[in-house]
Design a protein that fits this description.
Layout lengths: L1 E2 H6 L11 E2 L2 H11 L3 E3 L4 H15 L7 E4 L6 H12 L5 H4 L2 E4 L2 H10 L12
């Protein structure tokens, strides 16, 4: 899923079985939330962090009910995980909400979790 403007500026991967071109980042996020059974953040930059944290917030607010995972390859997300834990111990994030983000430390663990994953029947839609 990529907005038309980004597809023109960046390289849209045309070798995919499906490529969804959308009008805006908001539409991209809504479509990802609608079509996804869960979310995993691979190591990335600001866009990855922004989209992942928005999905985590939607779960926290009860807007959607889907799992969220950080794929922490080589400890890439250790500082972010420490920040989430600090927010919990400082009282800004309760234990239930801290548990929304599940950490996966390697590819083998990720593949094992995917093989066991079953989407929930009560997964809801994002805001439009």
């Amino acid at each position: 899923m990529i907005p038309h403007a980004l597809a023109a500026r960046e390289v849209a991967h045309n070798g995919l079985t499906q490529l969804h071109l959308v009008d805006s980042m908001h539409e991209r996020k809504a479509l990802m939330a609608e079509l996804s059974d869960g979310f995993v953040a691979l190591p990335g930059g600001f866009g990855t962090l922004e989209e992942f944290c928005e999905v985590v917030t939607w779960v926290q607010l009860g807007i959607i009910d889907k799992p969220t995972y950080l794929l922490n390859i080589g400890g890439y997300y250790d500082p972010l995980i420490a920040m989430f834990d600090r927010a919990n111990t400082a009282g800004f994030l309760n234990k239930r909400n801290r548990a929304i983000v599940e950490v996966i430390d390697g590819i083998d663990e990720f593949v094992a979790r995917l093989s066991l994953f079953r989407p929930t029947a009560n997964a809801s839609m994002p805001p439009t």
